[in-house]
Design goal:
TIM Barrel; about 50% helix; single chain; 14 helices
């Protein structure tokens, strides 16, 4: 099986012993300084140029780090499209929102109408189109979306936003509907451009902050609205949802999210997650901090632990630190390949 068949097979619920090894992009960024030096393409320029963005995404695969292409490399594209000022960072620092667009959720109608035909939204779409045309056949292209709650907390002060879930509930829902509509349009555009999978990263949607009630009311509802919205145009689109923090108190609520796979922080017990979320697939959750400069033997041990805990898709638990050693990351892919060889040998003896 090639990499695309393997990943889509796993996300489609097929019994595939060959575990994929991916890093989606977006919040779960795979770009490190070492890779920029090796391929001669660097941030912040690659954030705003579709050719550079596509080529840097290709370099992740070409340099045997992961088995996918993934763009963009940050979580600020949607917020910028809705008017947020963004600091583009540098070679070692990802872009970040530098100011809020609205003073409170009740002012949601003041958000500008998003235009996906210009700015960095267009850069991402064009980069996906280029990867579709020029990338290696059989390598999955993963488009990335900021989760609805995380986008809302990039447009309004997070503390005020979380308070508004109770105090200004109707206005909070109005803001969430507005951002979800924008994300649906952006996700649909990425799918039309050639994305095979969409990864949604929603760190602000953690159950640790929201609690079960608001997690169900705001995280589950709008993640599903987003997924269903894209699937109206692309019924076969596969979705991975990543949420940060400890999730054990909201596993039952999370099971209502209509994603094909869930990705978690390193603190989450994957065996426990599988028990609550079956038959959906579980992705991760090798410590990104541990990957930064670990020896190959240590990376092998971390990968083996994740696989033994039930990981269906081997991946870092979060975005990689930009100063991570590329050799440690390459060791993770070798661990996945070694596991496939062992599984194949086992099948041959049966």
């Amino acid at each position: 099986m090639n990499e695309k068949e393997r990943l889509l097979g796993v996300l489609g619920g097929k019994a595939i012993p060959e575990v994929p090894c991916i890093c989606p992009g977006g919040m779960m960024n795979a770009i490190v300084v070492d890779l920029m030096d090796r391929c001669g393409i660097a941030w912040p320029e690659a954030h705003t140029d579709p050719v550079m963005m596509a080529e840097l995404a290709r370099a992740v695969y070409d340099h045997e780090m992961f088995e996918n292409y993934g763009v963009p490399f940050c979580m600020t594209v949607e917020a910028e499209t809705l008017g947020a000022p963004v600091d583009m960072g540098n070679r070692e620092c990802e872009p970040h929102v530098s100011g809020y667009v609205i003073d409170g959720v009740e002012r949601w109608a003041e958000l500008p109408e998003p235009d996906l035909s210009r700015g960095r939204a267009r850069v991402v779409i064009e980069a996906i189109e280029r990867l579709k045309r020029t990338g290696k056949e059989g390598v999955p292209i993963i488009g990335n979306l900021t989760g609805p709650l995380s986008l809302a907390t990039s447009l309004a002060d997070p503390i005020d936003f979380y308070k508004s879930l109770r105090r200004k509930n109707e206005a909070a829902h109005a803001l969430m509907r507005r951002v979800t509509d924008m994300l649906t349009a952006f996700g649909t555009a990425q799918a039309a451009a050639g994305a095979d999978v969409l990864a949604i990263s929603d760190p602000s949607g953690t159950g640790e902050i929201l609690g079960a009630r608001y997690f169900r009311e705001f995280a589950v509802r709008y993640l599903n609205d987003l997924i269903r919205g894209v699937r109206c145009a692309f019924p076969d689109m596969r979705f991975i949802v990543h949420i940060c923090g400890q999730m054990k108190n909201v596993f039952s609520e999370l099971s209502a999210v209509e994603a094909d796979a869930f990705s978690f922080d390193a603190m989450v017990n994957l065996r426990e997650a599988r028990e609550h979320l079956a038959p959906r697939r579980i992705m991760g959750n090798v410590s990104s901090f541990g990957l930064a400069f670990a020896s190959e033997a240590k990376v092998q041990a971390m990968a083996r632990s994740a696989l033994n805990m039930g990981s269906d898709i081997l991946a870092p638990a979060c975005g990689l630190g930009t100063r991570s050693d590329i050799r440690s990351i390459q060791a993770l892919l070798r661990a996945a390949k070694r596991n496939r060889e062992e599984e194949e040998a086992l099948l041959c003896t049966i």
